[in-house]
């Protein structure tokens, strides 16, 4: 079970068949009944969320809720991860597994640098703050 967005290409290509959808209503463009219509008295939605450790403090929780930088990579990963993985697999197949196929244009290099900066920024900020805390 998963969200339609993760498998839409394969469904449209005829590689996968949707047997039923779990929500209250049918999905437009998908020829499949709901579970209830199929005789299974169950209804739920495919939930996605941002989680944190159980002992998270109120201040940290508030920063996460306001979509501070530590949340951005997680949200991007959830949204773009499946598509990025599929494109990376295609690129590696086309280049016979050579990593140089992933960085063959200036644009791709810029994208990798920006993604790396987004992912590393929270760590850099945390490292910069440690000496400030020790001074107090």
TrEMBL record:
Transmembrane segments: 64-84, 104-124
Keywords for this protein: Membrane, Receptor, Transmembrane, Transmembrane helix
Keyword Transmembrane attributed: yes
Record-linked PANTHER family: TRICARBOXYLIC TRANSPORT PROTEIN
Name of this protein: Tripartite tricarboxylate transporter family receptor
Record organism: Actinokineospora iranica
